[in-house]
Write a structure and sequence with these properties.
Layout (H helix, E strand, L loop, with lengths): L1 H10 L4 H4 L6 H14 L5 H13 L6 H9 L6 H10 L5 H11 L8 H9 L6 H12 L6 H13 L3 H10 L6 H13 L3 H10 L5 H13 L3 H10 L5 H13 L3 H12 L8 H14 L2 H13 L6 H13 L3 H10 L5 H13 L3 H14 L5 H14 L2 H14 L6 H13 L3 H9 L7 H13 L3 H14 L4 H13 L3 H13 L14
Length: 521
């Protein structure tokens, strides 16, 4: 009884933030609710409102389904209770339903109501709902509230309606704050209007870290990585998101060495604890570089700092190990993951396939069918690639049929390419050609290139010559296509014809494709 009395006293605290700390476990919520029902206090509007707030908004016991139950069993909910349940439901369109109920109950929405319902409208497929709410904002005279204004700017930005977002901003210019500026700049940057975003950024009277980060991310996404770095270097103060934006920008731009150098600078002397996005980008850079030692160092760092390896970070780690040839380490990461999604399974299957373990990738697939998520199109690309590299012809054909007939996955060009490669490597060149000619889409040049390569390997000179000429017709400025045909003719000792192809390269001034190599130092 004493505990219940203390909890009820805390629920009635004048400060809502203090009242939200009254309950610290779901069981306390249920017990307190039962006590309030038995004692008759559950019908008291203030008590019911505070209990609802705890159930809906408390960080320690938040239980939205239970909060909805409390709300739906409350006779004549107050405006505060409507606002509470609307705020708690703002990630979904449920808040719109409660908003309509609020209007039907005869309550007027206020400046606490609209930020949540406007935020919720972003989950709608179009901006129509948000526009209707904007009309309600004007109708109820709340268009001069800065919190409402900021949410309207964010809503229009989420639908890429930057003209409307800018109009709201301009009409409220006398009251906009740093959040208003940052929201509009972020919307412009996210929609690709990076120069307009930069102009707004330059005009911004007071810049915060979030606005700097938005500009850095925007420049990086637009491929203007040097401008992103210039801004990064100019920042008066950086947080983990700033470093993450820059590391991610380098990694996605293919500047993986720069990404790793910056990440090392970030963590040197423990000056900054990286967030998940920075770690994922750094590990991804290692995967792109096939830099196993750097990847192992990152994995050790994650363990030493006791950073939680969630499904995203675990997946990128096992992907890195697979691409770097350490498939046993990839398997250990996969086994240690407490949660796996389809991307985790796909990365493991692709890693096995890449390392010539076709049969093992099939075994993994069987396990996935029984205990994992449903496979998708990417799953079958990895499986078919593994069959191709391991010469598993029957298994590859069976997988292709399984994909289309059982899982209803429409084959993409990559799937057809894997099948052509599978048949071509096995010397079944004519079967591969028949397969290409029955495709429902136009074959891409790489697919014809795989066929011509198979002809060269298996001595199908006449077919290789025919297809090689067709390939040159498709890509007359691709030097590798001429080299492939020339090699087929030279292997058949047709020296004059091979020389004619080489002369054709000179006559058409076709540039040779430069080779490249990666050496880890």
């Amino acid at each position: 009884m004493r505990v219940a009395a203390r909890i009820i006293e805390q629920l009635h605290h004048l400060s809502l933030s203090q009242a939200l700390t009254a309950l610290n476990a779901p069981s306390h919520l249920h017990q307190t609710h039962a006590h309030l029902i038995v004692s008759g206090l559950a019908s008291h509007p203030f008590t019911a409102a505070r209990l609802l707030a705890c159930a809906a908004l408390s960080s320690s016991i938040s239980d939205l389904p239970y909060a909805k139950t409390i709300f739906l069993h409350t006779h004549d909910p107050t405006p505060f209770m409507f606002n509470t349940i609307i705020m708690a439901s703002s990630k979904t369109l449920d808040s719109i339903t409660f908003y309509v109920c609020m209007l039907y109950a005869g309550h007027f929405p206020d400046n606490f109501t609209f930020p949540s319902v406007i935020k919720s409208s972003s989950a709608s497929p179009t901006s129509l709902l948000g526009t209707q709410l904007h009309c309600h904002v004007v109708k109820f005279g709340l268009e001069r509230d800065v919190f409402v204004v900021n949410n309207m700017i964010a809503m229009y930005s989420s639908f890429r309606e930057l003209g409307s977002a800018r109009k709201v901003f301009d009409e409220s210019f006398s009251l906009v704050d740093v959040v208003s500026w940052t929201t509009l700049i972020t919307g412009l940057a996210n929609s690709g209007q990076i120069d307009e975003a930069r102009n707004m950024f330059n005009l911004m009277p007071l810049k915060n870290t979030v606005s700097w980060n938005a500009m850095i991310s925007g420049f990086a996404r637009s491929g203007r990585i040097n401008e992103a770095r210039n801004l990064f270097d100019e920042m008066p103060e950086r947080d983990a998101a700033s470093w993450s934006a820059m590391v991610s920008g380098y990694s996605k731009s293919g500047m993986c060495n720069e990404a790793l150098e910056l990440f090392k600078e970030m963590v040197s002397g423990d000056k900054m604890i990286p967030n998940e996005a920075a770690l994922v980008s750094a590990v991804s850079a290692c995967a792109q570089l096939r830099a196993l030692e750097e990847g192992q160092w990152l994995h050790r760092y994650i363990k030493e700092k006791k950073i939680w390896i969630n499904v995203t970070l675990g997946t990128v780690l096992l992907d890195m190990y697979g691409k770097c040839g350490s498939i046993s380490e990839a398997a250990r990461v996969f086994k240690s993951m407490p949660e796996r999604n389809v991307y985790s399974w796909n990365s493991m299957i692709a890693g096995l396939a890449l390392n010539g373990c076709g049969k093992e990738s099939l075994s993994f697939f069987w396990k996935m069918r029984f205990v994992g998520p449903s496979p998708n199109a990417i799953t079958f690309i990895g499986l078919l690639s593994g069959c191709s590299h391991s010469g598993l012809i029957n298994e590859g054909q069976w997988l292709f049929s399984l994909m289309t007939e059982v899982y209803g996955i429409k084959p993409q060009l990559e799937h057809y390419g894997c099948m052509v490669d599978l048949l071509g490597r096995a010397g079944l060149v004519k079967e591969a050609l028949d397969f290409v000619e029955t495709m429902p889409m136009k074959p891409h040049p790489e697919l014809w290139g795989a066929l011509v390569g198979a002809c060269r390997i298996h001595g199908e000179v006449e077919l290789g010559e025919e297809l090689g000429k067709r390939l040159i017709g498709l890509e007359p400025h691709h030097g590798g296509r001429y080299a492939l045909l020339s090699n087929i003719l030279a292997a058949a000792q047709r020296w004059d014809d091979a020389a004619m192809v080489r002369d054709l390269v000179k006559g058409r001034k076709v540039l040779k494709n430069p080779g490249n190599s990666i050496v880890e130092t």
